Amino acid sequence: MDELIDLIAIPSTAGRPDDLRRALDLVLALVGPGFDTRHFTSGGRPSALIATPGEPRIILNAHLDVVPGTPEQFKPQVKGRLLYGRGAHDMKAAAVVMASVFRDVAPTLPYPIALQLVTDEEVGGFDGTGHQVAQGVRAGFVVIGEQSALEIVTESKGIIRARLSATGRTAHAAYPWLGTNALTTITAAVTRLLSRYPVPATEEWTTTVNVARVDTPNTAANVVPDTASALIDIRFPPSDPDLAGRSPAEIETHLHTITGVDVTVESLGAPHWADPAAPEVALLRDAARSVGYQGGLLRKHGSADGRFYSAQGVNAVIFGPAGHGQHGPDEYIDLDSLPPYREALTTFLRSLPVPTP
Prior knowledge:
Elements: H1 2-8, H2 17-31, E1 36-42, E2 45-51, E3 58-63, E4 77-79, E5 82-84, H3 88-105, E6 113-118, H4 129-134, E7 141-144, E8 152-156, E9 158-167, H5 182-196, E10 208-215, E11 227-236, H6 248-259, E12 262-269, E13 272-273, H7 279-290, E14 297-300, H8 306-310, E15 316-318, E16 323-324, E17 332-334, H9 338-351
Parallel strand pairs: 3-6, 3-7, 7-15, 8-14
Antiparallel strand pairs: 1-2, 2-6, 4-5, 5-17, 8-13, 9-11, 9-12, 10-11, 16-17
Helix pairs in contact: 1-3, 2-3, 3-9, 7-9
């Protein structure tokens, strides 16, 4: 609990590299000596892989960065059996449990295992898990400690961050027919995009679009703006034939056809899929059931670092404790879920059959 309180108190957001390092160092100190440790840095963001000798059969993956919050959210508070604070649920509590399980269990296992600690998942994961995978890190199976209430997520959506851009012709606002308003061109493009991908009335496993920002450098009310843009966040399932498996150029062409304006894909993360029939998935479900949880299979609308592994043909699942409110003002972890989460991870690791020579 002390390490978790201290970890939540660190404002390890993307714009605070010193605090990202502090968070990583705290968890490395929790694990302690006696393991092989590889340090990585990409884009100014640190990460580490702590392992027993050999290529890991299992990787436990945890991210230590959080989204920004108010100063009060970095002052953890326990209320009954709930621990409130930024990152308590997403996912510092799981990181502490994974680190302690690795420390205590890894030396006793008859196969290699690793703990992967990254500090950039909330901003795309490319400099943490993505960078390590690009450097050749692999495993037979990966468990990511994102929140799941001890259920197993075998599928999650891909993510596209794209910018729509339009140019027009400036003019005096009293004579708008002499100009072409780039801002209204962009809003019309956004309307066409939302018509193609409407926001579902209720939860639905489909492609969704969030309009994050519509902007123009123009600041004068009496001027027709000649440039404008919109920042778009798209989440798409593996079953979307227009987006899944497509290159950035192909996606730009597809979105241009819909919107009629210039499109730039600023980042692309593939959907994540793990074989629900994999033997490790079955053992993880059994482990969850052994501590009183259903161990059901889930799909998540949010993107996660498992996509970097599934792109390499490695099964990666999300399996984490219970809580609520990630990224919100009242984020908390359910402390009652942490002991069974730790026990389920331990049971899973010890239930894997001994590999044949």
